[in-house]
Amino acid sequence: MKEVTVQELKQMFDTKEDFQLIDVREPYEFEICDLGGTLIPVGTIMDNADKISKEKTVVIHCRSGQRSKTAIMNLEEKFGFKNLFNLRGGILAYADEIDHSKIKY
Predict the structure, then answer these.
(1) Per the structure, how many domains does the chain have?
(2) CATH no. for residue 77?
(3) Is residue 104 a part of any domain in this protein?
(4) How far apart, in Å, are the Cα atoms of 91 and each of 18, 44, 82, 104?
(5) Catalytic residues
(6) CA angle (43, 46, 104) in 5-degree steps
(7) I want to staple 37 with a disulfide (CB 3.0 to 4.6 A). Which of 21, 65, 87, 96 is the partner?
């Protein structure tokens, strides 16, 4: 599975790269803290695959990186996505290594 580090994601933000960020956590988690992505909870991701770009890089994240891995495996298997990247360590790693103002839970 392809992954990006939190440092690579920060660089993507900084250089204003054209990519899509998908957050597969639950709405209550998204309310605690977010990275500015589109919220599509993992339980609904298969029904919302049409909202995910097949043309540009797509970074999918969750709290620690496990739910996003599952989402990516399912999307690749069922819909043939080739452009999905897991955020290694999820939003927890982003809070630890990039933005200490993000609330960890």
Answers:
(1) 1
(2) 3.40.250.10
(3) no
(4) 20, 20, 23, 8
(5) 62
(6) 40
(7) 21
